[in-house]
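Notes from hallway chat w/ T.B., transcribed later so I don't forget. T.B. wanted the structure written out for a chain they're using in a teaching module, and asked if we could keep both sequence and structure tokens in one place. Agreed to drop them here.
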Amino acid sequence: MESRAKAMGHGIHPILIVFPLGLLATAVIFDILYLATNRTGFQISAAYTMGLGILGGLLAGVFGFIDWMGIPAGTRAKRVGAVHGLGNVVVLALFAASWFQRLAADNWDPSAGALICSFVGIVLAGVTGWLGGELVERLGVGVSDEAGVNAPSSLRRSAGRARARGA
């Protein structure tokens, strides 16, 4: 089942998701470094990185929702996709809660609650990421109908599109 939102032959959601996931994981690493060293640069870096990760997650989520809308109703893929998407809404809510708690503090200093939100958020992101992998690897969501080990490049016109245009 092919992705509904594509750019140059590839689904947009899996292209975009690497940015928020990487940024949010990096924010947690900065939190850990801040806790280990008490250097203020790490807490500020965590806050800015987290903010960008939240924005990126919102953008990736739009394209994930577009793809989810194309999954046939009543299928396991539709149910797994719903859990994946709703789980990621919770991930973004946890990181947003962490970010707003930092915003209210002096010098972006993370409270215990902010740290708990970000740590729980990144663990949950691992779970929802696994579900995303299940959607693609096991259930074939977002996989081109022409996929195969010898499939032509996605940058070339497919035979189906060429036939539709009368070529």
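Follow-up for T.B.: Residues 6-145+155-164 form one domain. Might be a good example for the class.
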